[in-house]
């Protein structure tokens, strides 16, 4: 039987993923208020992606007959000093989530929980992509801080983060099909 420690840690990560989702909503709201619709749309999409990550974890716990705990929602930042700050905060958030994911992977491996280790492999790959995405966006926003329509143009032209569904992703709880 798998060690209960992983299920408990995964429940903690569900809370972290929902918190990340809500913080991305906060960034999106900021950009919406600044009339930067493409930046807002980017962060609304990121919020949905983080929500889906939490729901993948929920589905895993359901599939492995473990308890699922849904966390309380706390308020998130919606005011920032400038247009660079939400992206900088997002990069730091993605780096932190990457460390959390690596710790979960290490826990699964250390307890010989092969199901959990296999489940976490996708998240390890995903975090590499997420950190790179935010680093690229931060580079663009920092270079264009005095001309933010250039960031909007970049997002329209390059469409970062819009690659579509990953067929190797774990199932999302509540998703049809």
Walkthrough of the structure:
This protein has five helices and no strands. With 177 residues, it is mainly alpha-helical. The protein has a single domain (4-69, 78-158), classed as Ferritin (Up-down Bundle). Helix 1 (4-33) runs antiparallel to helix 3 (85-110). The mean pLDDT is 94.
User: What CATH architecture do you see?
Assistant: Up-down Bundle
Structural class by secondary-structure content: mainly alpha
Q: Give the overall form.
A: elongated
Estimate what percentage of residues fall within beta strands: under 5%
Instruction: Indicate the mean pLDDT.
Output: 94
List how many beta strands DSSP finds: 0
Query: Radius of gyration in whole Å, from Cα?
Result: 17 Å
Low-confidence stretches: none
- CATH fold category name: Ferritin
Instruction: Report how far apart the termini are.
Output: 29 Å
Helix-strand pattern: HHHHH
Summarize the structure.
This protein has 177 residues and is mostly helical. The protein contains five helices and no strands. The protein has one domain (4-69, 78-158): Ferritin, core subunit, four-helix bundle (Ferritin, Up-down Bundle).
Key structural traits:
177 residues; mainly alpha; 69% helix; elongated; Ferritin; single chain
């Amino acid at each position: 039987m798998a060690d209960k420690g992983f299920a408990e840690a995964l429940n903690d990560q569900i809370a972290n993923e929902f918190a990340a989702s809500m913080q991305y909503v906060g960034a999106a709201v900021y950009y919406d208020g600044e009339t930067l619709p493409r930046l807002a749309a980017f962060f609304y999409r990121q919020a949905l992606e983080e929500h889906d990550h939490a729901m993948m974890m929920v589905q895993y716990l359901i599939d492995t007959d473990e308890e699922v705990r849904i966390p309380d929602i706390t308020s998130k930042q919606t005011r920032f000093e400038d247009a660079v700050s939400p992206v900088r905060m997002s990069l730091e958030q993605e780096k932190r989530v990457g460390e959390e994911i690596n710790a979960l992977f290490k826990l699964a491996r250390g307890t010989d929980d092969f199901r959990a280790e296999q489940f976490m492999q996708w998240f390890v790959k995903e975090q590499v992509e997420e950190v790179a995405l935010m680093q690229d966006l931060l580079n663009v926003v920092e270079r264009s801080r005095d001309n933010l329509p250039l960031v909007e143009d970049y997002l329209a032209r390059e469409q970062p983060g819009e690659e579509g569904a990953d067929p190797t992703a774990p199932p999302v709880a509540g998703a049809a099909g």
